[in-house]
Design a protein that fits this description.
By secondary structure, this protein is of the alpha/beta class. It is 36% helix and 16% strand. It contains 13 helices and 13 strands. The strands form 3 sheets. Strands 4-5-13-10-11-12 form a 6-stranded mixed β-sheet, sandwiched between helices. α4 runs parallel beside α5, α5 runs parallel beside α6 and α12 packs across α13. The longest helix has 16 residues. The protein is globular and about 65 Å long.
């Protein structure tokens, strides 16, 4: 049996088929490419019961991942993150079945490791010599580290105010790192120009290569498996470039076609910050695409994307599942970050905090019932964002006294 049942790549706008065994960027129409698989072959080759006996990494779903040979996998043990029940915080919000998928426990401390693992593995398999990308921080750090493990070069450009820890990760990985006085889009223009002068280097910007989505979609497969191959009612996801929510929706559609799950799909909720909410704005207008969000800024740095290349795919996923899009303030998301840590002992990232702040809005509005299975994606570890928690504590003299 093939290790991967990858068949071709498909333009997300026109449906045009492209060769999956050549290095590809955007489609001729300038749209993202989606990996497609021989799902009939997958259905005959493996069952969910067989998957249960495999190693607890995202590679357990290798039939629906693009790497053709197991020897070409570049891995740091990513995947199979916990699905945690949150009883105390659930009671606080009036949600009896609240869950969190905690991506803070993957290598590099964020869900970006999933896309990097699959993207770097496939790039190396296809003979790419190096990767280049703009980033708000965590994606660049993940791709730089996985590139180092694969023996590839990495060129990373990020806004000057990106989290310092992500810059240090890039430096430690030996990446060629540049800070940019601007936003991620400005960094992207610089990267694209540099790649045009560097043969053998692939631009792996968000959705400009096909395989980051494939790594991210494994969150959807894992959620289904962790629920015993059934589906929750609602999934909330912090949305910047949108690859995570696009990937989860792709996984849900694939699993339905495979017959591994049944019934209605979870309602997908795209969560953004009010300081950068192009998807929320488009959804409120019933639009199929977003427009550039002006003066974008939020402490949830990972979702500071004024205009996502795959915005139409995010909106399609939300509309198709009867979901919604919600924006919360920085004050709300930071408060929810602290609340969840206090209630449940899980120090989440500010982007995850945005989702929990959105929960409160959705519960108060009646959009969420109290007895639904609700899954929140926490996309990173809070310890990567130390500046979000003020440190104002007493200093005692060595001969002092604790009150």
């Amino acid at each position: 049996m093939p290790y991967s049942f990858l068949s071709h790549l498909e333009c997300a706008r026109t449906g045009e088929s492209l060769d999956a065994d050549a290095v590809q960027g955007l489609s001729p129409a300038g749209a993202p490419l989606l990996a497609r698989y021989d799902l009939d072959g997958v259905r005959e080759a493996v069952t969910p019961k067989e998957i249960a006996g495999r190693e607890p990494t995202l590679w357990r779903y290798h039939e629906v991942l693009p790497v053709r040979s197991p020897e070409r996998i570049v891995s740091l043990g990513e995947g199979m993150t916990p699905l945690l029940r949150l009883p105390r915080y659930g009671r606080e919000l009036g949600l009896s079945r609240l869950w969190m998928k905690d991506e803070g426990l993957v290598p590099t401390g964020t869900f970006k490791a999933r896309g990097a693992a699959v993207g770097v593995s496939r790039a190396a398999e296809l003979g790419v010599g190096g990767i280049a990308m703009p980033t708000n921080g965590n994606a660049g750090a993940a791709w730089a580290l996985y590139a180092a493990r694969a023996g590839l070069s990495s060129l990373i450009a990020m806004p000057d105010d990106a989290p310092a820890i992500t810059m240090r990760e890039c430096v430690a990985a030996g990446a060629e790192l540049y800070r940019v006085d601007g936003l991620i889009g400005d960094a992207g223009k610089l990267v694209a120009e540099a790649v045009s002068r560097r043969p053998g280097v692939q631009d792996v910007s968000t959705l400009k290569e096909p395989y980051r989505i494939e790594g991210k979609k494994t969150m959807g497969y894992e959620i289904a498996e962790q629920f015993g191959w059934r589906l929750p009612d609602v999934i909330l996801y912090p949305t910047g470039g949108g690859v995570g929510i696009i990937g989860i929706y792709k996984a849900l559609r694939e699993m339905l076609e495979l017959g591994w799950v049944s019934g209605p799909l979870p309602r997908l909720v795209a969560v953004q910050a009010t300081g950068c909410a192009p998807i929320v704005q488009a959804f409120s207008q019933g639009a199929r695409e977003s427009v550039v969000f002006p003066d974008a800024r939020t402490v949830a740095f990972g979702i500071t994307v004024p205009k996502a290349l795959g915005d139409f795919l995010v909106l399609d996923a939300v509309y198709a599942t009867g979901g919604t899009a919600v924006a919360v303030t920085d004050e709300e998301l930071l408060a929810s970050q602290r609340e969840l840590t206090t209630f449940e002992g899980t120090f989440i990232c500010p982007e995850g905090g945005a989702c929990f702040a959105a929960l409160r809005h959705l519960r108060e509005s009646g959009w969420l019932g109290g007895d639904e299975d609700v899954v929140v994606l926490n996309t990173g570890a809070g310890i990567k964002y130390p500046e979000t928690v003020p440190l104002d504590v007493p200093l005692l003299a060595r001969d002092g006294r604790i009150p």
